[in-house]
Design a protein that fits this description.
about 100 residues; mainly alpha; 5 helices
């Protein structure tokens, strides 16, 4: 695990424990969120909203995961579109040169 992810995970676990939930709940959340940015976003949510029922916390985690997945798909699509554009705009030999 990367250092940034480890630090963010520790902060998320601390926030969860401060709310009175078991450490394992924070570990599961961090495991589902997977990226440092998503974990930090979840920790910020918890710190700003204060105590939340576990269902609300899980819903927010799912929303963050959905946002991340949507972003990943957008970046894949942008990459694919750039490659297609690059292919279409590649230099080509003219048809007249082939016949000579």
């Amino acid at each position: 695990m990367e250092l940034g992810v480890e630090r963010a995970t520790a902060q998320l676990i601390a926030a969860i424990e401060d709310m009175g939930y078991p450490r394992e709940f924070g570990v599961v959340l961090a495991g589902e969120l997977r990226s440092e940015r998503a974990i930090v976003r979840m920790t910020s949510y918890l710190r700003q909203t204060g105590f939340q029922p576990p269902e609300e916390i899980a819903d927010e985690m799912l929303a963050i995961c959905a946002d991340r997945d949507r972003w990943v798909e957008q970046k894949k699509s942008e990459y694919a579109n750039a490659k297609i554009t690059e292919f279409y705009n590649r230099p080509r030999e003219s048809e007249d040169e082939d016949g000579e």
